[in-house]
Target: DNA polymerase kappa
Amino acid sequence: MESSKTTEDHTRSLLTRLAGPSTNKAGLQSVDKEKVNKIIYEVSKGSAFFENEVKRDAAVTEKINSMLSNYEKIKTQDLTADLVIVDTQLIELDQTRDLSQHICHIDMDAFYASVEERDRPELKSKPMAVGSLGMLTTANYEARKYGVRSAMPGYIAMRLCPQLIIVPNDFAKYTEVSGQIRRIFEKYDPDFSPMSLDEYVSTSELTVEAVIEQIRDEIFRETGLTASAGIAANKMLAKICSDINKPNGQYLLPNDRYAIMEFIAKLPVRKVSVFALKHETVCKSSVASRLLTGQIYIVLGYDISGIGRVTERILEALEVKTCGDIYTQRGILYKLLSPINFGFLLRVYLGIGSTKIESDGARKSISVERTFSTLSKEEDLYNKLKEIAMKLADDLKEENLKCKTITIKLKMPSFQTVTRSKTICRYIQTGHDIFKYDAELPVSLRLMGLRASSFISSDDTQNMGLKRFFSSIPPSEMTSPSKKAKTYPASQENELDRDGVDLIKITTNDDYACPVCTHVLKNIDNTQFNAHIDICLNTVELKTILTTQRSAIMPFSSTVIGHEIQHLSHAYLIFLRPSTTFSSSRKSCSVSGTNEPQHSPSPKLTTATGSSSLLNYFGNSSRQNPG
DNA sequence: CAATGAAGGACCC
DNA sequence: TACCAGGGTCCTTCAAGT
Model:
């Protein structure tokens, strides 16, 4: 029977995929998932989105199959030696267990929807969701009975529940309520308000549970909203526990090794999500607090990861359904998964998670993206991108950040998504062949986005200018100029330009080849020359990264792209016209969502990633080909 | 032979 | 009627350069 699982399994996984990411949320347990999934399937069948999901599902299937064939081989092997290694690892991990404190995760129930209900009580008894017909952000519990949930397109929700009321998002309002809640927490946090601390906590008779109840109660009195809480020994467990008695309830998992192991063993892997505190985000509905011997530290914001649809499928194929199964299958998992993923699973199995409140806040990237009804005209696309770039530039300015890397993201009407990124100094130094842009190739897009990352201090920007450019690029590499150089003139107040461009001294009026576009500029003086360089640097038409860098990986069916980059304030404006038919030949990644930023607050992330990646590679290959 | 950049995904809310 | 978001983080794989 194992071998005859073909189309049936296929549709099943597809149905699950289409059902969306949040099918296990509170309030959804009682719905007839089969039926709901079927309706979702019927409604979306044939759409571009659907077709794209089919592809992605197939990719996961393929990956699983290759894993399974490996699995078959390994099954017959003697894993004794491996088990010794794994069990040693388990013992070591167990010794890191920290049961010295309680950590509590407080989660607002259906936050946006609850706010709307509070303001319009008549909605309480009716199925209601917040969002638009395009996409819902959340649904109240009445609506969840019909299978309506967050991240579901509104029009599909309407099929599931025709009487559904959809209320538009009102983020300003939610932010305000977040502020209210936050102020409540501040009262409990000694760092914010030491005075009121005694008022609430020093009555040491109060149990942890009582304190949390009190906090939830106060939230309710203050905002009219309910919250749920999980109290446990670490962040991971606290997060999981907060879901158990949702809505408007709390759950305490005792700080006892046995209790924890019992609890986790029965837990379906999909329930695992890991709560890690990151930079402070006000407009979120989750709050974590830590109770430590009479003190409470409140931290807002989160960074949550977990085991999602894909990982669940992979694990299921490896016969791991509950966290307890991780132990049973540990030998296989050790052989098949990357060390990082495997280590994560071991910690899950042991119920070990981070207990730190490292509010290591530095944010790593800022992005802006917009979906729109399909645009095809170059001009429209350009304008849209310009808007996005302006917005991103504003955001950067607001955060007082400068970036080194810009990533553009494009989504075709087919939902195929491509991203292209460039770090500025490299971009300038490398001086990609400039591409004479080819025949008009209108491409349609449904989304464009820009992301800024690799933030740099202004010191770093000093050495990235033309000097460096000049010194490292042989003139022969420069090619023809952008036809459009003057169409998109440089923006006036361009800080990055100022920082990045050193003026070039030319002593005599002469012919001079522009290093960027290689045009020979006749008889110009310093000022004119510099002006020209400015324009060229601001608007460079690249031979597309797509052709030069990706052709080896992704076969292109037709001609490619004009690609322009324009400085716009802090941001770069990138314009591309890719061919519509990228065929991704990539294999999908392995088990992910396994990232609880462990201990060490911020030791070189890049290094960590790099080396683990290598470790991974070597580790896997040596283990997977054992003889 | 480490370090790095780029592209693509998975996951969360 | 309407036809699948936007903002982040981290992980993995590839490829190329010294």
Observations:
- Chain A is about 45% helix and 20% strand.
- Residues 2-62 of chain A form one domain.
- The first strand of chain A starts at residue 102 and ends at 108.
- The mean pLDDT of chain A is 67.
